[in-house]
Specification:
Layout lengths: L4 E4 L5 H12 L5 E2 L11 H11 L2 E6 L1 H4 L2 H12 L4 E5 L7 H7 L3 E4 L6 H16 L17 H6 L2 H15 L3 H9 L5 H9 L5 H12 L7
Parallel strand pairs: 1-2, 1-3, 3-4, 4-5
Length: 223
């Protein structure tokens, strides 16, 4: 399996990083993380550079520890130099240092606090699935039936309704909302499922609540 995701972290956050990797790999994502994936007797720096070059996205486990880590800064700097998207998975309420802020100011952030982290991992999986594969992440406990779009339900997702959902999402994340709504609608079983999938793209609990509530107030189709 191609290792499309490079996970960068500071040693004090190792437990969280390994838990994140386990969650992603359980859902069929290919992940590279040091030191697990560094070959014995290999040149550490060379292996990391090669892994970053081969990845399609970097997930940075961001905390006060990674904020102060020269190794993390070098990895992020290399990723940005290679035009590799960096997703900062922020596990505590810390702001980037000046050295990291320069590289992360235009990147995507996702808050992963307060605990428990389970829901935050689910949001991360959903975001990465759309980014890498163009489809919502599959739930390993799902038999597959819930992901099949029933024709009767498809008919209830009218173009006008989707346009309103898109408008509410665009308020939070801008023009990319159009693409995300189209992709999520292809696998949605109803509007509630659609809005839940899209809410996972938002970075704060308040934004997700505001988006879901706005969608709930939309008129339901009749007939």
């Amino acid at each position: 399996m191609a290792r499309e995701i490079f996970v960068s972290y500071s040693q004090p956050d190792r437990e969280c990083a390994l838990e994140l990797v386990s969650e992603l790999e359980a859902n069929d994502f290919g992940v590279w993380i040091a030191p697990r994936d560094i070959s014995p007797s290999a040149d550490w720096a060379e292996e990391i550079i090669d892994a970053i070059s081969a990845a399609r996205v970097m997930v940075l486990v961001f905390s006060s520890h990674s904020n102060a880590s020269p190794q993390v800064r070098r990895e992020v700097e290399r990723a940005v130099h290679k035009q590799l998207p960096v997703l900062a998975f922020r596990i505590e309420d810390a702001l980037p240092s000046r050295s990291l802020e320069y590289f992360l100011s235009s990147q995507h952030w996702m808050d992963a606090f307060p605990p428990p982290r389970g829901p935050h991992y689910a949001r991360l999986r959903a975001h990465l699935s759309v980014k890498l594969h163009g489809a919502p992440a599959a739930d390993p406990k799902d038999t597959g039936r819930s992901r099949i779009l029933d024709p009767a339900l498809a008919a209830s997702l009218t173009p006008a309704e989707l346009q309103l959902v898109e408008r509410h999402l665009a308020y939070h994340i801008g023009p990319v909302a159009s693409l995300l709504v189209r992709r999520a609608a292809a696998g949605a079983i109803d509007r509630d499922h659609l809005t839940t999938q899209l809410a996972a793209e938002l970075d704060s609990d308040s934004a997700r609540r505001e988006f879901i509530e706005a969608c709930r107030t939309l008129p339901r189709p009749t007939g």
